[in-house]
């Protein structure tokens, strides 16, 4: 049986990748074949510090490694992989399905809005879709998310938001109708890291000190840093900075706010400090990043016209 250790398991930024989260969106969607084909259909065991995976497998076989257990499964089914869960996949070459990845801030927002129904995202598990109607409904939802994600249109963010909420509700219903598969175990360290990430999501705009975060969690700052480095492979301050950076990218991409306004909204005392922070972490000034994003968006919108 596969028995990974926390020190030997890499922390990926995305499904099979060590590079940064590729978009300012809080959601990423792609087909399973387009990614797994690049890795010879095998995604080795790894974990994510701040991402939640929902894999919908319509057809095909997957050999799943999840928190030290192995399962050979056939579609249709859904696999939920919370943050910090060790997981790996070996897919058959006829696999059909999608992987929807939620950044931790989106998972936290869903938790606030859907309350108990969103708890399905916090439990590592798989759900066999044995009833054809339910399987078809869930498959249609995932297809809609994929189509909306790939073709930006007016109201895209709100549409994706509503579709993802519907997906989580469907998953919750599916989980309620079946007994858990015995995978719902998380240690105390994971729970504390999740609590810290929830505090970051609620307070990152105020940029509290790490000492203040640690106090709220009932531990020392040294303990908090040790926990973050052990489970997330980053310091507590790096996790806070990553959330600030993500929000800065989103505002630069999707709003008309000035650099000064964005800096102020994110708790920076002056725009120059925000600019240095952003460039140190991305290699680009906020202005250059915005220009690049807008150019990329214009290119995507022109692509269908060029093909016709």
Short descriptors:
308 residues; alpha+beta; Jelly Rolls; Arc Repressor Mutant, subunit A; 2 domains; five-stranded antiparallel β-sheet; 9 strands; 49% helix; 17% strand; disordered N terminus; disordered C terminus; HTH_AraC; Helix-turn-helix domain-containing protein
Rg on CA atoms, Å: 20 Å
Order of helices and strands: EHEEEEEEEHEHHHHHHHHH
Overall average pLDDT: 82
CATH superfamily of the largest domain: Regulatory protein AraC
| Number of E strands | 9
CATH architecture of the largest domain: Sandwich
Q: Which blocks of ≥5 consecutive residues have pLDDT under 50?
A: 1-12, 14-19, 304-308
Beta-strand fraction estimate: 15-25%
Number of helices: 11
The class by helix and strand makeup works out as alpha+beta
The level-1 CATH class of the largest domain = Mainly Beta
End-to-end Cα distance: 52 Å
